[in-house]
Amino acid sequence: MNLVFALNSFVYFIIGILGVICLYNTSKTGKCKIGKLMGVLGILFLLISLMYFIWFLGFLEPVRNDIALISAMLNFFLATLFFFVFYKLSDRHGYKVFYIVFLLACAGIFLASGSWVLINMISSIFLLLIFIRLNLKSVGEIKKAALLGIFYSLLSIILTYFSISNEKYTSFGFFPYLIMMFAFYFFMLHTRKCQKIDVNYKKEGFFPLEVVKFSLFIITFVVFIMFGTIAMHEMGHAVFASLNGCKYEVTLYKQHHSPKTSVTCSEDTAQKPLLAGGFLLTTLIAFIFLFAGESFTKNLSMIIFSFGLIFANADLASLGFSRSVIYFLDACALIIIGKGIHGLIISYVKDYKKEYNITNVCKA
């Protein structure tokens, strides 16, 4: 285990140095605000590198959840800061809602179960979405870094999945971060020379590779929204249970079991609000997004509402709805999900055809 701590410390140290170099390049040119964000990440990586080095020397020892906490925290901050990088490049306000869903999912998981491994999983999926979009929208070093980010996210998702059943896998986080190290290298190259770029280009038609990337983005996006809706659904049950003075226990992941919230109340407590709590919260969030105004948020609201309806099947059955009605509602939900995905595709294709100014990349 000491060797694993040393490897983690070394990889994080290199990433931290590259991030600080990005910050240094930004301070020299006054451009490429992305360098400031990379610098913040670099400092964070250096601090974590120091922590692993202390563990390696044996001055301190990690307790059970320390490594899972650090991994989740790193991925959460990576997802947050890279979202702001992408947000500056895209200049579309609708994407803020995307980040709100991510925050709600993380908050739901934390309040319901406190599982850092699951938060790490959601952050990795969110990062995968960001890097796919960043790769499709960028050129040069940013595009190369985003491609490496895609591989980092996929490997992180796989590693986190195995960590759910065995937390020892969280100690081997340096494997995906080896890929992130090279991504930081390309970000560093970008901050060195982006001030020299001042040209426009227009994206042409879709190529097979772009189709594959876009398909991966849509699939990952829907999976991300699905996980986020599950977390919000269970959080809704927990909130209503808490408001009624009931005891509750949320299980978001258990082998061979679906997510559930176990509630224990006194006999005189009304059951219907507790059963409907999950669906009510997801519906409320969906309507907030619906009235946000942009086409992106409207399509997102349809998908959230539909998943919320599907995940409420057991609750609807407990409330007295027949199988026929539930199957009918599920069929309607699937149609609405299809409509929402279709709307996202149309919105993306329109955005893809727009001219893109590389100068904005340097200003980001």
Features:
364 residues; mainly alpha; Rhopdopsin 7-helix transmembrane proteins; 2 domains; two-stranded antiparallel ribbon; 13 helices; 4% strand; disordered C terminus
What fraction of residues sit in β-strands?
under 5%
β-strand number: 4
> Can you summarize the main beta sheet?
2 strands, antiparallel
Reported by name, the CATH topology of the largest domain is: Rhopdopsin 7-helix transmembrane proteins
Rg calc: 22 Å
SSE run: HHHHHHHEHEEHHHHEH
The top level CATH class name of the largest domain: Mainly Alpha
Average residue pLDDT? 75
What is this structure, in a nutshell?
The protein has 364 residues and is mainly alpha-helical. It contains 13 helices and four strands.
List the helices and strands and how they pair.
Layout: H1 2-29, H2 34-57, H3 66-90, H4 95-112, H5 116-137, H6 140-165, H7 174-193, E1 200-202, H8 208-243, E2 247-251, E3 260-264, H9 272-290, H10 295-311, H11 313-318, H12 323-352, E4 355-357, H13 358-363
Antiparallel strand pairs: 1-4, 2-3
Verbal overview:
By secondary structure, this protein is mainly α. The chain folds into 2 domains: 2-106 and 113-218 and 356-363, Up-down Bundle (Rhopdopsin 7-helix transmembrane proteins); 223-352, no CATH class. 76% of the residues lie in helices and 4% in strands. It has 13 helices and 4 strands. The strands form 2 sheets. It has a two-stranded antiparallel ribbon with strand order 1-4. Strands 2-3 form a two-stranded antiparallel ribbon. The longest helix is centred in the middle third of the chain and has 36 residues, at 208-243. The chain is globular. It starts with a helix and ends with a helix. Residues 195-205 and 355-363 have low confidence and may be disordered.
